[in-house]
RNA sequence: CGGGGCAUGGCGCAGCCUGGUAGCGCAUCUGCUUUGGGAGCAGAGGGUCGCAGGUUCGAAUCCUGCUGCCCCGACCA
């Protein structure tokens, strides 16, 4: 590609609404342009990156036996009503209606549509397993779209769906996708982790997330220093340490005027947060127990997902309102404690090991000190309710846990029969009986991968693309070509040589000053650069500089292609 | 959804409080000079000041309503 025939929309100025580095750089380098909240146009340079990511995904999907198809973005409400998600999915689902007033949604995901296809097309176990995928624009009406392509409302996603006759088949399909994902992210060249995850609202059991590690990531990724264990914060198992100490004090009333939070409490009673018990009241799942109490240690945080996964707790998790609190305790939030509460009470494993602790007295402005399980109140119902913290033991038994930030770029699920049952997707088995299909689904946020790659690879000059997804692999920058036939011809020849060698090369033939050319190409993030100038040609040389290199090196003119091929291979 | 803020050439902003000929930087265009790290000088074009009402002789500016966008908030026991 010749830059003069391409479109390069770089700017020196920073857009005022871009908060994170990938958003700023994508805007400045002219990769994306904003149309509306969470809506972006992919400009020609940006689209080249997207297409390269897609190409890698397609190759690895094909290698893993998945078949590409393309489903409609607009989906009839009936299908979503059949699966129950028309009501369950909530406001993130963009609902629209046509001229006949029929309801539709713009697909945030395609489990329903693919299951509908499969139930019509796949009749026999002999046609299994199948795995269909598409690369398509999705729409999710996010509460707060932000960070440019990172959390856009409209974005490009690869979504694959596998169907098998039994659990063993599903496991095999899942493992194949897992392996394919590993190859994809390896090839793209990102630092990432595959982590155990909660499957969330899509339903089903097993799921693994793929996170690109970056400080700006919105998710907390937990990993072990001593094993391969990795999980996201929602899923990471919190293992208590030590044993419960013996009670040494008797239970006493403490006047705590104006104390509402754990911080207030530690100040008021002079005890560390680890000695305070936090009691949270949440809505229950049944009429019989409309309010449920959950206890965690004062220095710990309740894990919403773990709480929500308790059968007794209403989903989605919501805290009890003032009226509900008053219905079970004679006080307001801030003074709740487990002693004397006559509602279901679940206690985090670490909180269950506390002795002589402080907690609310269920009376405003009063707390209790010296409280002990098994003496002042029954032995607790123990559950895992909290977020892990750095230094917690590895649940597999070796090492401790560390927490880093990650950007979720892929998520693979074993859905099981959730959708096939709801939509009645069966095949006939060997015995001639109908068998409900077992389903898996596998997503990659293609456009988010691009943003994540930038978060992980940039410097003060701009983006540093991993070679595999760079918009161009190499740029040729002729210095003052307009004034020198020699420079122009040498650059042109080098360009053609590389182009014929199948290299994705950009010839920067714009009539610009060198500083501007260099700055543009570094901002755009092209991994390799060759400079052609009269001075260099006089010595029969070109100049080479890798995007991460501090200094340029001189190379013999004839070695340029060979040099590039060598660098590219390494 | 709650709170805060913004809306003025393509982009970033000032002007508004105290009503009176709409300005700056960047970008664009022309010319000359310059030429290995986002050049200099001279000149030019480009805005019914988000929309709708109101107050006024007169509104970017004051008032009302609307719309769009941005930011903060979902650990409170």
Task: Provide a descriptive summary of the structure in words.
This protein is an alpha+beta fold and 570 residues long. The protein has three domains: 3-236 and 403-454, Bira Bifunctional Protein, Domain 2 (BirA Bifunctional Protein, domain 2), CATH 3.30.930.10; 252-383, YbaK/aminoacyl-tRNA synthetase-associated domain (YbaK protein), CATH 3.90.960; 472-569, Anticodon-binding domain (Rossmann fold), CATH 3.40.50. Helix content is 26%, strand content 28%. The chain contains 15 helices and 30 strands. Strands 3, 7, 8, 9, 10, 11, 12, 20 and 23 form a nine-stranded mixed beta sheet that branches. Strands 27-26-28-29-30 form a five-stranded mixed beta sheet, with helices on both faces. A four-stranded mixed beta sheet has the order 14-15-16-19. Helix 1 packs across helix 11 (446-456), helix 2 (44-63) packs antiparallel against helix 6 and helix 2 (44-63) crosses helix 11. It is globular and about 95 Å long. It binds one RNA strand of 77 nucleotides through residues 10-17, 19, 36-37, 143-144, 146, 260-262, 265, 278-281, 301-302, 304, 318-320, 325, 331-337, 360, 477, 479-480, 483, 512-520, 522-523, 531, 533, 535, 543.
